[in-house]
Design goal:
The protein is α+β, with helices and mostly antiparallel strands. Helix content is about 45%, strand content about 15%. The strands form 7 sheets. A 5-stranded mixed sheet has the order 1-22-21-18-19, covered by helices on one side. Strands 2-3-9-6 form a 4-stranded antiparallel sheet. The two termini are about 50 Å apart. The N terminus is likely disordered.
Length: about 625
């Protein structure tokens, strides 16, 4: 859903004009003049073993803003605080204030302006030596106004803490401001709010029901995998015995599954407690790439390329003890079952542990794995209570391999979930679409069914067809909006108010290669329009919709060669070379250059410029 929203966001549109001659280019000042970032501590000195408050203080010049921690538009860069952990100082409970909604053209955007205080807690270890200690802190932000956007920035703002006696309150006014805004914003962990926390925050008890329900169903489905399903009757007979009553079988099965669930829950609890450290690592691309590789390795094991299992020596050591029957035996077997996971279940358990490590919530971590284990153990309770139930369940067969491969695709989608922080939304959607199409083909979406086909084959067909349809829809949407192979169809057509499809009347025929466009203009003796843009630039989309798609602008610009140049990063070789070539002093988007037919820069237009003003500028260029 997030990917579809990211691809389907509507373009902004607003007014405003900013013109500059070549010699005067450099409006707005440098980024460090627009946003000032610092850190403060709540005490002049901290005692070992205590928990204190720190804060990131952001001062923004009037007329400018930065995106809030939760921008409404997926493509915008959110404000984010990250930490590097050091021994003895543990940052926790990062609390972003709520952004204020500001309407820019047709879009409502969540922004921070003026002064913003982002508080967090710092736990000081009891054995931390007296003296000064520095906690590395970084702040990422993107400054914009109603005309232009500057490049996303990341600044280092370490906080220095004096550990020792005789400390007193400090920076009370700053923390008083933080307290006044805390009630409007739910707490977040240093890595940002996870999907699990977002569901629970937005839907309350229903959010818990959804999260834990998905965990339970996942465990239940995995109990049908080929490594688990055939072993259920054997395992039940070990802890409940061959001759058992309904009551005894139910009780011992419940003890077995409950023990397994508690062990899984403790694993989730431990991983979640380490989530603060883990979350800070997620800001590092090498760490994210490592996580993605781990998920891919797990997925390949689910596809049968190899088995990932507990080392045989450890498995034999854990399994050699004779558990026997009774309560004690059920408990021992439950512990062993949780620790000695099967090759089918193990990779997925590791994947869940890796995912919930991003939440930083011990409650969510414990309950997610606990309910997962309850789902995994449901068949154990059913067969342990009613021994005849085994005859009503489907027999072992090839269908279990299908269940295993299904979870292989789920692990690959989890890999994409982490990878999306490093790649564009379009590429994320493309990979997702290809995975869904692959699942649809290999999952049975194109298989032919006979009238004798049972429930499982029909369910397999349904899931495969659904994946094919969603994948095809996503792929077609990408081809329409991005134009990976052919030019983007969305640039050639738009819908009129009556709902009919008409040809776009704005500037058409954009060239996406600078050298190609300039060579063409020189050969034809035509002037040039160069539009610079980036994926994170909201005002670039304003300029595109408001001005470049205007019919009158399109007619006046027909004698120009239009070129689009993507300048995604301020200090990239492409950006530096572009600035040097055209004499630009400041990296500010959108910036539109008008070149005469002689190839020389005639006008530089900074920020959003309205259609009438843009036409006036075009008429001055020959």
């Amino acid at each position: 859903m997030r990917i579809l929203i990211a691809l389907a966001f509507s373009f902004l549109s607003c007014g405003g004009t900013a013109l500059a001659d070549v010699a005067q280019f450099g409006l707005g000042g440098a980024e460090e003049d627009l946003v000032s970032v610092s850190t403060v501590f709540s005490q002049t000195a901290a005692l070992p073993g205590g928990t204190y408050s720190g804060a990131v203080v952001v001062d923004i010049v009037p007329g400018w803003h930065i995106n809030s921690s939760r921008p409404h538009q997926e493509y915008l860069i959110p404000a984010a605080v990250t930490f590097d952990t050091i021994t003895g100082l543990t940052p926790t409970d990062l609390r972003y204030p709520a952004g204020s909604d500001e309407k820019l053209a047709d879009e409502v955007m969540s922004v921070y302006s003026d002064r913003v205080v982002i508080p967090f807690d710092i736990r000081v270890a009891a054995d931390l030596a007296h003296g000064e200690h520095t906690l590395p802190v970084r702040f990422t932000y993107q400054p914009c106004n109603d005309r232009e956007c500057r490049a996303p920035q990341t600044v280092d703002v370490p906080i220095t803490i004096l550990v020792g006696p005789s400390g007193g309150p400090a920076n009370t006014a700053v923390f008083a401001q933080a307290e006044s805004t805390e009630s409007t914003s739910p707490p977040q962990n240093p890595a940002g709010e996870s999907e699990l926390e977002r569901l629970i925050r937005e839907y309350g008890s229903w959010g818990y029901f959804l999260v834990l329900g998905v965990a339970f169903v996942t465990g239940l489905l995995l109990s049908f995998s080929p490594c688990t399903y055939p072993m259920i009757p054997i395992t039940v007979s070990i802890f409940a015995g061959q001759e058992r009553t309904v009551g005894r079988g139910f009780f011992l099965s419940l003890v077995y599954v409950g023990t397994m669930a508690v062990v899984y829950g403790i694993m989730g609890l431990i991983v979640s407690l380490l989530g603060g450290v883990f979350g800070a690592w997620l800001a590092s691309p090498p760490v994210v790439i490592g996580i993605v590789i781990v998920f891919v390795v797990f997925a390949l094991s689910m596809f049968g390329q190899y088995d990932l299992n507990v080392p045989s020596a450890l498995r034999q050591k854990l399994g050699t003890g004779r558990a026997g029957g009774g309560v004690a035996g059920s408990i021992v077997l439950g512990v062993i079952a949780a620790l000695v996971v099967s090759p089918c279940v193990g990779p997925f358990v590791a994947g869940i542990l890796l995912y919930i490590a991003t939440t930083g919530s011990p409650v969510i971590g414990f309950l997610t794995l606990f309910f997962f284990a309850l789902g995994l153990g449901t068949l154990f309770v059913l067969i342990g209570t009613f021994s005849s139930a085994i005859n009503r369940l489907p027999r072992s067969g090839e269908w279990m391999e299908t269940v295993k491969k299904f979870f292989g695709f789920v692990l690959l989608l989890m890999a994409v979930f982490f990878l999306q922080t490093l790649i564009s939304p379009a590429l994320t959607a493309l990979i997702t679409a290809l995975l869904l199409l692959a699942f649809g083909v290999f999952g049975g979406g194109v298989d032919r069914l006979t009238s004798e086909a049972g429930f499982f084959l029909r369910l397999k067909k349904f899931l495969g067809l659904t994946a094919l349809l969603v994948g095809a829809y996503l792929l077609l949407a990408l081809l329409f909006t991005e134009g990976f192979i052919l030019p983007s169809l969305s640039g050639s057509f738009s819908r009129s108010e009556q709902g009919t499809i008409i040809e776009t009347t704005g500037i058409t025929g954009w060239v996406d290669n600078l050298e190609t466009g300039l060579s063409r203009a020189k050969a034809e003796g035509r002037p040039v329009i160069i539009d610079t843009w980036a994926t994170w630039c909201a005002n670039c989309k304003v300029l595109e919709k408001k001005t470049f798609r205007d019919a009158d602008v399109g007619r006046e610009a027909a004698r120009f060669v239009p070129i689009k140049v993507q300048l995604e990063k301020e200090n990239s070789p492409e950006t530096l070379a572009f600035k040097a070539r055209f004499g630009l002093k400041t990296y500010s988007l959108p910036t539109t250059l008008l070149l005469g037919s002689d190839g020389q820069v005639s006008r530089i237009l900074v920020g959003v410029i309205g259609p009438d003003d843009f036409i006036s500028e075009l008429r001055q260029v020959r």
